[in-house]
Amino acid sequence: MTPATPATPATPAHPDDAGLLAPGWTGSPAAAATADGAFLRALLDAEAALTRAQESLGLTPEGAGAAVTRAAAGPYDVRSLAERARAGGNPVIPLVADLTAATGETFGPYVHRGATSQDIMDTATMLVAARALDLVLADLGRTERALAALAARHRDTPMAGRTLTQHAVPTTFGLKAAGWRSLVVDARDRATAVRDALPAQLGGAAGTLAAFGAYGAPDATALPAAYAGELGLRAPLLPWHTLRTPIADLAGCLASSAGALGKLAADVLTLSRTEIAEVAEGGGGGGSSAMPHKANPVRATLIAAAARRAPQLAAVLYGCLVAEDERPTGAWHAEWEPLRDLLRLVGGAARDAAELAEGLRVRPDAMRANLDLTHGLIVSERLSAELSSVLGRARAKELLTELAPRTTAEGRPLAELLSEEAELRGIDLGALTDPALYTGSAGILTDRALERR
């Protein structure tokens, strides 16, 4: 599919939109791609493309498309447009007036001809989403590559597997990193599919394309495809003014991407606790205003914050699927801010995830030390299976149940206590209780996961 037309410079976001309370997305590529100036640029791109598409079908005089495109280069006053948007409920109405005036008397009448405000606003939203998703996909790619390298490097690095917060059985850090990568690849694939399906919007006042026919189009249904082609968006099957599947798909894609990155963050936050210390963020982490010794896992924290906010924002967009009539009151308008917030949150989280994965410090020595905290009890599952053939299933369970509290209370290795049992003499209990020798098929599973591209 043809990429969306690259954004050209536009009026920057107002300083009020600097992101003072949003360190998760401030300064990210997605922040610039979703700023007020970026939305304005997308609106202007949509208007200019509409005139060019009509000219390509012979619906305007030659030169109209070029004239509107030149006029769309601006500059335009974002704050003025925002203030005047209150009168009609959307920024397209004042923008059309300004763009028409800037185009001039000859070609001004061909600005926005036949379209409705929602056509332009929806199309611009799809352009902003496409441009932001391209940036998100780039950062997801960085994250995937860094996690693949971690998984391969630590394919056989043993660590404690934890279930319900407690040591369960041994696993490997390679398998954990491969799992993180798998979620990122899922997010990448879904984001790619949604990105490629983002449609232009063109239907006119009530989705019938009637005005374009009135202006002389012999087949108005050809115009949406020509319009989409000008912008690198998908041609819509129908006008989707109240058929909001594209928005819902985008919401789901963004929320699931935030959740996928949130899993990585949640694990890093746990594993980087002082008393666990199996991983640490690169660059020394973030500082504290009161405690000079702190090295906080800031990137993981910001990702986790985004993952907690994203589902509720997506829920608002899913609620907007219930849009009445051929053009809705309120449902469409309610989409704009949560969708932008979602794009920003996920864009920032993807940026932070890439930096987190690329700089993550892994501490195999700490992993091994934590494996030994329970003096061999972490392999009780293995012992239950292995000793059943020697002692019988019931006796093996009884013995391990008896020795488990003694191992904890006395601080003695489980292998040492087992060696006192006459029936077990001659068995290599050291090997049986070595957590590093009980990681199952973790290595094979890691290899299999890394085969996925």
Topology:
Blueprint: H1 29-33, H2 36-56, H3 64-72, H4 78-88, H5 92-103, H6 117-153, E1 158-163, E2 166-172, H7 173-197, H8 210-214, H9 223-231, H10 245-271, E3 279-280, H11 298-319, H12 336-359, E4 361-362, H13 364-371, H14 380-391, H15 393-410, H16 414-418, H17 429-432, H18 442-450
Antiparallel strand pairs: 1-2, 3-4
Helix content: 55-70%
For the biggest sheet, the summary is: 2 strands, antiparallel
Query: Which spans of ≥5 residues are poorly predicted at pLDDT below 50?
Result: 1-13
Number of strands: 4
Radius of gyration from CA coordinates = 29 Å
Mean of residue pLDDT values: 93
**Spatial strand sequence of the major β-sheet:** 1-2
Number of helices: 18
What fraction of the residues are assigned to beta strands by DSSP? under 5%
Order of helices and strands: HHHHHHEEHHHHEHHEHHHHHH
The shape is: elongated
Structural class: mainly alpha
Give the distance, in angstroms, between the N- and C-terminal Cα atoms.
20 Å
